[in-house]
TrEMBL record:
Keywords assigned: Oxidoreductase
Protein name: SDR family oxidoreductase
Family matches, as InterPro entries: NAD(P)-bd_dom_sf, SDR_fam
Pfam families: adh_short
Length: 260
């Protein structure tokens, strides 16, 4: 059983999908786990199945709700927080001309602003906890801009940039900042018409992403601690490194083929 002395993880948008898998992974290791989500039905289901999880409602676009949720969770942990898993995110399906202004705005509000507000709200708790981590949920779609999910893809570039910036900004506070960069995982978020779901397939499981979160928050040595981006499968690892070293005249046609 977890206690106030146990390491702790707060997962936003964690009532189902990848967040739920992360919760299960850390629970099994004896961590104190908090899952906060806007989906109250999914929270109730999780609480019924896993009564040891601390749950609460959270709209990540509201900073006051972030403050209240973290205060609630850390009241169970002696005021400490080992890991914030910035997991909440949404996707819009289709060309930007076909997406409503509301869904375009929501992707920026949740995937970018919500993630940033979470980092700000969690900082005081992470700062006072030895070995703390901020984990941002990125995506392989943040390697090269993806058509048909353009606002979502762009939001994941933001995640990468924020991760790099906070890694430098928070070094003085000894908070390690990392991002997970998977291809499509078997969740509701992958139920879109983007060509890459057909070209590359939807092969990654939520448990594999949870394993990557665990690895990212448990660096084994100095070299590992210098790493800040984590792939989940061999395919997204290859794409990420090809995106770094590949010339533009090759990257564009390759991504055009992937996007279908």
């Amino acid at each position: 059983m977890a206690t106030s002395d146990s390491p702790s993880i707060f997962i936003s948008g964690g009532a189902q999908g990848i967040g739920r898998a992360v919760a299960e992974k850390f629970l099994a290791a004896g961590w104190t786990v908090g899952v906060y989500d806007i989906n109250e039905d999914a929270l109730a289901k999780l609480k019924a199945e896993r009564p040891e999880v601390i749950v609460g409602k959270l709209d990540v676009t509201d900073f006051k709700q972030w403050e209240d949720a973290l205060a609630d969770f850390t009241s169970h942990t002696g005021g400490k927080l080992t890991v914030l898993d910035n997991n909440a995110g949404i996707i819009g399906d289709g060309d930007i001309t076909d997406q409503s202004p509301e869904i375009i705005r929501a992707q920026v509000d949740i995937n970018c602003t919500g993630l940033t507000l979470g980092a700000k709200a969690a900082h005081p708790y992470l700062k006072r906890t030895k070995g703390s981590h901020l984990v941002n949920m990125g995506s392989a779609s943040g390697i090269y801009g993806q058509p048909h999910i353009a606002p979502y893809s762009a939001s994941k570039f933001y995640v990468s940039g924020l991760t790099q910036a906070l890694d430098l900004e928070w070094r003085k506070d000894k908070i390690r900042v990392v991002a997970i960069m998977p291809l499509w995982a078997k969740t509701k978020l992958a139920d879109v018409s983007a060509g890459s779901t057909r070209r590359l397939g939807v092969r990654i499981t939520p448990n594999q992403v949870a394993d990557a979160v665990w690895k990212a928050t448990h660096p084994q040595n100095f070299i590992e601690r210098q790493r800040h981006f984590y792939s989940v499968s061999a395919a997204d690892f290859i794409l990420r490194y090809l995106g770094k070293i590949g010339p533009q005249f090759l990257s564009r046609p390759v991504n055009a083929i992937i996007a279908g």
